Amino acid sequence: MSRIWVINKRQVQWIAVAMFAVMLTIAYLRWEQSKPVNTDLPEERTIHIVTGEFKTKTADGKEIEVYRWDPGTIPARLGENLKLSIYGVNGANHQFYIEGTTIRGEVRKGRETVVTFTPEKKGIYRLICTTHSGHLATNTENKENKENKPMSHEEVAAPMIGYIVVD
What predicted TM-score, i.e. pTM, was given to this entire model? Predict the structure, then answer.
């Protein structure tokens, strides 16, 4: 025995509306997927940086210290507008510049210094403190140091350098 399906006019209208809704949904989803992804850089990205200090004493009682920017490395994108908000925590003041640019400034303890920076080429831009720039002397350059002893803090100091890495 075969079955016969009888569809009235009302059922045909409901099927047509349901099919139209399904086609409309598919068209909308395909349209949303075809939109380009927004690759624009934000207007400005703020990077919060602080000055930091590490201090210790050697076995013979001499005090040694090193200053640093924290974070020490900042990733950035080419053409990205950066706002560097630098707050002085340790050290009375830090004169600084960003290598390869005209940007210069000073960070004072307890105060915020703000500079803007937009990298124009890929590479590494060094944020250099000239107050704690370090010395380039080495043990081998010290002619009086025939025993090749470790140099004192007065002879060599670590530089205070941060890195802005632009891809």
Answer: 0.64
